[in-house]
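Deliverable D2.4 — example input (structure tokens):
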């Protein structure tokens, strides 16, 4: 029975093609392994970030904090209640709204910054009228 070395001497073109196929196969496996590692790393980062974010939010949001649609904008209401899955925000002239934790973008300086795209349409409509009853002649 001829050895691999004999096959290379007898059939050099086929041996090169075989080596190329093996190299390609190994390269594809290495690429897949690299992708899997990258996906695992990204997934682990997302899970850790989400867990840290949820822990951070639970620790920081307190009743009385002001809610904002964007940092630096006018406040839309005040936090009335805090629980594990949501917060309740009171919007002037509209009442209370339950906001899921997933709609909270950031918490700092007693401010709760919300993600508008994750808010109930009724809340967004109420935000547009939150300051309707204010007297524009009063300095504030």
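Example output (designed residues):
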């Amino acid at each position: 029975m001829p050895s691999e070395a004999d096959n290379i001497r007898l059939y050099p073109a086929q041996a090169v093609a075989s080596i190329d196929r093996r190299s390609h196969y190994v390269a594809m496996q290495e690429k897949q392994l690299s992708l899997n590692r990258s996906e695992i790393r990204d997934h682990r980062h997302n899970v850790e970030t989400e867990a840290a974010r949820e822990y951070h939010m639970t620790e920081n949001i307190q009743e009385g904090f002001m809610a904002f649609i964007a940092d630096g904008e006018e406040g839309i209401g005040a936090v009335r209640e805090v629980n594990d899955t949501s917060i309740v925000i009171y919007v002037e002239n509209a009442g209370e709204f339950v906001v899921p934790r997933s709609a909270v973008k950031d918490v700092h300086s007693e401010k709760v910054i919300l993600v508008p795209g994750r808010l109930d349409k009724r809340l967004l409509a109420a935000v547009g009228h939150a300051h309707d009853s204010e007297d524009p002649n009063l300095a504030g």
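The chain has a mean pLDDT of 75.
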